[in-house]
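Late entry, evening session. Most of the bench is empty. Finally got around to the prediction I had been postponing all week. Sequence below, unchanged from the version circulated by S.P.
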Amino acid sequence: ARRDYTDAEVAAAVQSISDPARFEQAQRVVEANAPALQRILNQALNEANWYDAAHQAQILDAAGKADVDERLDAVHRLLSEETRVAMLVGVAVGFELAHELMDKEDT
């Protein structure tokens, strides 16, 4: 059964997976399953309406800045935000995948 994790447990787990060897193994697993994971990530972003009209307006606003420096700054901020959101969704997918694998081990 699932349970809530304490902040200390999560911090210890994050520390543990920061070992480069552990991360390399996780990277191999993700790369081997990239197409399926990409579909899940795209589905999650689409269901959250990430690519809706407001997002399109932000793109147009960033690209339409007359001053080159302002335009580059706006595009950089938009890309940074998109990256953060995609990474957070990816972490959530990974978290659920881990639970799914753990649930299979328990049965």
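Two things to note before I forget:
Residues 68-106 form the longest helix (39 residues).
The CA atoms of residues 82 and 89 lie 11 Å apart.
Will write this up properly tomorrow.
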